[in-house]
Design brief:
Two copies of one chain form a homodimer. Chain A is of the alpha+beta class. In chain A, 44% of the residues lie in helices and 25% in strands. Chain A has a single domain (5-268, 277-294), classed as oxygen-dependent coproporphyrinogen oxidase, CATH 3.40.1500. Chain A has a seven-stranded antiparallel sheet with strand order 1-2-3-4-5-6-9. The interface between A and B is medium-sized, with 28 and 28 residues.
């Protein structure tokens, strides 16, 4: 029997559970609160939020499975002939309290239409407030190792995709140190079975907890100053700009009349846009800024 | 001689000056810093920012006059056959420190293309953190009195336009208590001369300083609590959402490769998106929320 909606949503829910357990354990204080919600047009979700933990100031591990009539905006964007859609996924953003712990984002999703079209999408990317080159390399190596188990071309291909996707055009800088991003993976495009693609996607999802709990543990006790905190607020403001201006997942959520508090769970607990800000010359803030401005150069 | 670019930009600059003087005087402490900038594709502007005043925490009174090749995105949106454009305007947003002083926005703009098409646009709207019905009525009466001097249909027509424009669809609430909004006013559409339309527009611009200095003076000494401040941060976050997700002026700025710090000057100095927030039942916060949810009901 072909891999269907039920098997996929069950696996996603299991992943959500195990990630929440791992993050909560690594945090040591914060626990996830669950909110089960229903979408008026069909389906619903389970939004799990951790707030004011010892490490995580605000984070969400969201599961959703929605279905119904394909909204006109989405149909146009997809040039779709279908009338019904089904979409399920797990979506994560973590905003740590300590500026030396990076922000992280992970998403895996499955989409299908009643004309038989389906695909998988997803990715993990890292947004350090302060870029630590060793850590960024380690992060990418983790992604590469897992990708390589499924297809030796995946890592390079999906890293390039992330580099481009997470480039904040209006600021001419990258959101963070990138990661991997993939979309519309299906049998025809990849010459792989649905089962094989799903296994790869789940492997990426399962990589999230070991990666991020290590980044939490390694950095959570680092001392920081008011300057570090101000820089964190500044980097968070760019995160807001990316998510509200460019992010396709956010747009999809708004266009499908999704649960707004779950969609915008990704936004930081505090941030701001003071007009005049300056950072010490040759300090770590400007070093990070320089890297973000040169990490990816759009064509 | 027909009213040309030079006369319009001169009037806009004069207005910018007089507004800065009035706001700075009413603030009593803050002064505007000016930054003259050039746009690589043609033209430039004068961004005036006030920060950490006694009343205004962050505010901008921006003038710009840009020209050059019409960017493809804009051409498509306008279904324009033209290849060159000229756009000038004055744009204001004020974020006060005291939650009982409202946020305000004002904009007047002029746009023309080399095929001879031109129009005026603009408006003023008010975003109180706490809605004071008497004050909102007074504000609207001020707008109506001025509109009525030019056309008895203007106020109702432009208020409806603002009601619709400043409705935050993804939140199902209005941004504030609305105001007036108008766009694409020209000879053909309005059966009025260019001079008459310009006079009306300038009268709206000149209304800004007397309106806002009064709102500053009336409210700046009101005492406030941490709860009031938290509510202000919350309302500010909705302001960010509107500006980054819906606002056409912001989109136009980003699409024309405008000066990013001037375009996003509208964003508040501090805000945030904590997930769990609650407000006292039947308190003034929920009263304001209720009004915002019922002020305008979209078709």
């Amino acid at each position: 029997m072909a891999l269907g909606r039920e098997a996929i949503t069950t696996a996603y829910k299991t992943l959500q559970d195990s990630i929440c357990t791992a993050i909560s354990e690594a945090d040591g204080k914060g626990e996830f609160a669950s909110e089960i919600w229903e979408r008026p047009g069909g389906g619903g979700g389970d939004t799990r939020v951790i707030e004011n933990g010892a490490v995580i100031e605000k984070g969400g591990v969201n599961f959703s499975a929605v279905h119904g009539a394909l909204p006109p905006k989405i149909a146009t964007a997809l040039k779709a002939s279908s009338e019904e859609f089904f979409a399920t996924g797990v979506s994560i953003v973590m905003h740590p309290e300590n500026p030396f712990v990076p922000i992280i984002h992970m998403n895996i999703r499955y989409f299908e239409m009643d004309n038989g079209t389906w695909w998988f999408g997803g990715g993990i990317d890292l947004t350090p407030h302060y870029i630590n080159q060793g850590e960024a390399t380690w992060f990418h190596n983790q992604l590469k190792e897992t990708c390589d188990q499924y297809d030796l071309e995946y890592y390079a291909r999906f890293k390039n995709w992330a580099d481009e996707y997470f480039y904040v055009r209006h600021r001419k800088e990258s959101r963070g140190v990138s990661g991997i991003f993939f979309d519309r993976l299906n049998e025809d495009a990849e010459k792989k079975s649905k089962e094989a693609l799903f296994k790869f996607q789940l492997a990426i999802g399962e990589l999230f907890a070991p990666i991020y709990t290590r980044l939490m543990t390694d950095n959570k006790n680092k001392e920081y100053t008011n300057l570090n905190k101000a820089w964190q607020m500044h980097r968070r403001s760019r995160y807001v700009e990316f998510n509200l201006v460019h992010d396709k997942g956010t747009k999809f959520g708004l266009d499908t009349d999704g649960r707004i508090d779950s969609i915008l769970m990704s936004l930081p607990p505090s941030t701001g846009w003071p007009y005049t800000q300056s950072w010490p010359e040759n300090g770590p803030e400007m070093k990070t800024q320089k890297i973000l401005e040169t990490l990816y150069l759009p064509k």
